[in-house]
UniProtKB/TrEMBL annotation, chain A:
It comes from Candidatus Glassbacteria bacterium GWA2_58_10. The keyword Lyase applies. It comes from the Bacteria. The lineage of its organism: Bacteria, Candidatus Glassiibacteriota. This is Fumarate hydratase. Pfam families: Fumerase_C. Signal peptide: none annotated. GO terms for molecular function: hydro-lyase activity. Residues 5-177 form the Fe-S hydro-lyase tartrate dehydratase beta-type catalytic domain. NCBIfam families: PRK06842.1, ttdB_fumA_fumB. SUPFAM superfamilies: FumA C-terminal domain-like (SSF117457). The keyword Lyase applies. Keywords: Lyase.
From TrEMBL, chain B:
It holds the Pfam family Fumerase. This is Fumarate hydratase. Belongs to the class-I fumarase family. It comes from Candidatus Glassbacteria bacterium RIFCSPLOWO2_12_FULL_58_11. The keyword Metal-binding applies. Residues 12-279 form the Fe-S hydro-lyase tartrate dehydratase alpha-type catalytic domain.
Length: 185, 281
């Protein structure tokens, strides 16, 4: 367990290259939410050569579809969703300069290769901790695809969002290393 | 004969949707606390702390434990001496309750009308309703919202009878290893053994309703549950798949007679947010 690293996007290549699988990171500042349906639309825009609804360069995307906010609240419960479903889309966003993704679960080979090629990083947050993570979100605004409801793209501000580097830009894989360390079958 | 008004069913269902999504069962909390004490990985312990803190926050703030408030699955036991009164079917009354409960309690609507065209129904209906008739004058409705992340990692295999007990064990270990970090471990393994293709999957889901820490009534299966739990925890998957000694909080088995040619086995994967609540009339 190392000390906790604080990060604020946009992230530079230099910052990303300093991160290693297993690092504990607190993210503060602006990040963007997107999951299955929003990714499909983003990649369709890329295919048509049209601009995306937010600046992808240096950005962090959080894979989440929150519950509706109750009156007086910023956002509902907002834990990470399973990331592999975004694997078919992620390399195209990484090629445009996306520097970080937050989700839960393992990534496929194409994404892991893209992390190294494009110098980016995959963070994992605690899946199922939706009520806790919503406490770290200080503002939320839908910026695209409102018709998708929970799947709309939101610009959210976070304060000390606790994540762990699961896959770094050097091929480090915390899932693989962690499981090997504790396997006794 | 007992008469139950379907409007009352709708009201109780709406109430169940709100409560079950914000309240983790005492059995799950006890299992998480036990796992926290035993977990060898420091990262794993931190994750288990966050999961327990999340459960406290959800309870105190009446907030959903997880943003995936699930597919609304119901296990209904309808007594032979219960007469339902009111408009339409029991399933329609349940669906009206789900629509109301998910709206009033600010729960996420996660159901699309068509699996390929994928337009959201907007009210989290339709529910999946499993109806069983039982003796007596009791109507019980167990609501078990099921998240997509863990459901996606579930598996079914039609083993050969010759595969036997060892085949079942291999299937469980393999399924847990393939799932890895995806189903939000620590998981609960619901295991159906026997019956037919479709009923085996139903058994696996039904198994998840038994409280964690309870022993299977048949000694052979009680021992098998313990052995499988030990094997699953030795995969090293650990909390959130980042490595550790807590991969599962429990293994729960349901069996049923099966065909001389078959050995169906189904694993319904349940995340740590194992929510279910029952209303009895």
């Amino acid at each position: 367990m190392s000390q906790i690293i604080s990060l604020t996007p946009p992230l530079s290549d230099k910052t990303v290259l300093e991160l290693r699988a297993g690092d504990q990171v607190n993210i503060s500042g602006v990040i963007y939410t997107a999951r299955d349906a929003a990714h499909k639309r983003l990649v369709e825009l890329i295919g048509k050569g049209e601009p995306l609804p937010f600046e992808v360069r240096g950005a962090i995307i959080y894979y989440v579809g929150p519950t509706p906010a109750r009156p007086g609240e910023v956002i509902g419960s907002a834990g990470p969703t399973t990331s592999y479903r975004m694997d078919p889309y992620a390399p195209k966003l990484l090629a445009l300069g996306l520097k970080g993704m937050i989700g839960k679960g393992n990534r496929g080979k194409e994404v892991l290769e893209a992390l190294q090629r494009e110098k980016a990083v995959y963070f994992t947050a605690v899946g199922g901790a939706g009520a806790l993570i919503s406490e770290w979100i200080t503002s939320s605004e839908v910026i695209a695809y409102e018709d998708l409801g929970a799947e709309a793209i939101r610009r959210i501000e976070v304060k000390d969002f606790q994540v762990v580097v699961a896959n770094d830009a050097h091929g480090g894989d915390l899932f693989k290393e962690g499981i090997e360390r504790y396997r006794s079958l | 004969m007992k008469t139950v008004d379907l409007n009352e069913v709708t009201g109780r269902v709406a109430d169940l949707c709100g409560k079950a999504n914000c309240l983790l069962g005492e059995d799950v909390i006890a299992a998480l606390e036990k796992a926290r004490r035993a977990e060898q990985s420091p990262t794993g312990r931190k994750i288990l702390d966050q999961i327990l803190e999340n459960a406290r926050l959800a309870r105190d703030k009446n907030a959903p434990l997880c943003q995936d408030t699930g597919f609304a699955v119901f296990f209904v036991e309808l007594g032979t001496e219960v007469r339902l009164q009111g408009e339409g079917t029991l399933e329609e009354a349940i669906n009206r309750g789900v629509a109301r409960g998910y709206k009033e309690n600010f729960l996420r609507k996660s159901i699309v009308r068509d699996p390929l065209n994928r337009v959201n129904t907007g009210d989290n209906t339709p529910a999946v309703v499993h109806l069983t008739q039982v003796p007596g004058d009791r109507l019980s409705l167990t609501f078990a919202p099921k998240g997509g992340g863990s459901e996606n990692m579930s598996r079914l295999a039609m083993l050969k009878p010759a595969d036997g007990l060892e085949g079942v064990k291999r299937f469980v270990i393999e399924t847990v290893q393939i799932a890895g970090a995806n189903p939000c471990p620590p998981i609960i393994v619901g295991l159906g053994i026997g019956a037919t293709f479709e009923k085996c999957a139903w058994l696996a889901k039904k198994a998840l309703l038994r409280p964690l820490g309870s022993r299977h009534p048949v000694a052979f299966y009680a021992d098998l549950e313990e052995e499988l739990l030990d094997l699953v925890n030795r995969t090293g998957v650990g909390p959130q798949g980042l490595g550790g000694t807590t991969t599962a909080l429990g293994v729960l088995i349901e069996t049923h007679p099966c065909h001389i040619a078959s050995l169906p086995v189904a694993l319904n994967m349940q995340c740590h947010s194992a929510r279910h609540l029952t209303a009895v009339f």
